[in-house]
């Protein structure tokens, strides 16, 4: 009798494991959350700002107000992006530290599948609600993977800013595989087709919608573009000369960078895990007392890394701290440019040596 019970128990465990395995295979990633796993939102600003439940299928309706008087709607507009970027009072005279916003839109799923909701923000707090489920509430950057059913889903974003600049961007995207530098290098080596390397760098976009327009100049060979930033940028490619673009490798320190524009099916889009953020060719340094400080990164090191990954020489550089648009290339990486960079490195080293010789008094020797 005991043996029969043990056999029955073992058979039950096997059947349970088989059923669990079947459910996981049917649903995909077992760690992927469905909306039902998130709590219901207890409230929404939409009850006050969007009582008619206007959730556009194309774009996002934004409602903007001063948090000191939220009952007064200062501005309302439909935009293609779910976010905003401005400083001081440059948006409808709303002080940045008192800025409040509510966005409403739709996520249309042709088929059931995975989406990644990313949020990048500065000194602020945010709530993201999808189909009345509270997906995120907090004051830091986030990325959330979701399994969404086929059909139309509503999305609401509530935002309270607490700084003299306002910088928030929320994106809903299909999942993108992040590649290492060695993986990108291997992908570029798959074909023997010659190509030329170009680099574009920025800290952030100066446009309210977070877009930077990249205007490609004529290229003699297929292009490989490396795009890097700190804040997430929507890099929009304008290619009036129909240059062949072999690949675009893009990244940002904060989540949410995307590439749009004149891109055909032959262009390989690759998201880089450990990307580049340099946006200046040379360092600008100063000495205060015995404290030596430089702005910007050493592009010489970035240059070597880019050329190692890209398998060739970098022929063009474009960069600015917060551009709205950039030509590609902005600067040719010829011998004159490389010599200028080398001269800057020598000058920086000399400045550092001179600065280190400045006396930094201490308490015991002050009156000696």
Helix fraction, binned, reads 10-25%
Give the oligomeric state: single chain
Proportion of beta-strand residues: 35-45%
Which class of secondary structure composition applies to the elements?
alpha/beta
Low-confidence stretches: 1-28
Number of strands: 24
C-alpha geometry: globular
**What is the strand arrangement across the widest sheet?**
12-19-17-15-13-22-24
Number of domains: 2
Gyration radius, rounded: 26 Å
End-to-end Cα distance, whole Å, is: 97 Å
Q: What is the element string, with H for helices and E for strands?
A: HEHEEEEEEEEEEEHEEEEEEEEEHEEEH
Mean pLDDT: 90
Work out the helix count.
5
- Main sheet specs: 7 strands, mixed
Walk me through this protein's architecture.
This protein is of the alpha/beta class and 368 residues long. The protein has two domains: 33-173, Jelly Rolls; 178-356, no CATH class. It is built from five helices and 24 strands. It has helices spanning 2-27, 46-49, 181-188, 299-310, 335-356; strands spanning 33-34, 60-66, 73-79, 82-87, 99-109, 113-121, 124-130, 133-138, 142-148, 151-161, 165-173, 178-179, 196-202, 211-216, 223-229, 234-238, 245-252, 258-261, 268-272, 284-288, 291-295, 314-320, 325-328, 331-332. It has a seven-stranded mixed sheet with strand order 12-19-17-15-13-22-24. Strand 2 and strand 3 (73-79) form a beta hairpin. It is globular. Mean pLDDT is 90; it is low at 1-28.
